[in-house]
Amino acid sequence: MHFKVIVTLLLFTIHAAIEARFRLFRSKAFSVAIKGKLTCPHHRKGFALVMISFNKKPEVDKHPVAKHYAKFDLSFYLSKMFEYRRGYPREYNLKN
Description:
The chain is an alpha+beta fold. The protein has a domain at about 25-80. The protein has two helices and three strands. It has helices at about 1-25, 75-80; strands at about 30-35, 45-55, 65-75. The longest helix has 23 residues, at about 1-25. It is elongated and about 35 Å long. Keywords: Signal. This is Transthyretin-like family protein.
């Protein structure tokens, strides 16, 4: 019982630390690629494979820094992750 609690807290702490690193200490070298379609293209929310890599363009990397499935509001997520990037390509369509 105690072992499961300790492991759960440890995993939660590691996950929170990784997320805080990308949220607080952003670098222009990082890019975010979203692979796959959303579960429902008519709504903003859905599941997609999110990959954070060292690419300067938002494209899929073979060896991303972080790769996880996330449920998010698409417009909010992109506005937060790309707010430091200017010249974001308009022709990049995430639903294709």
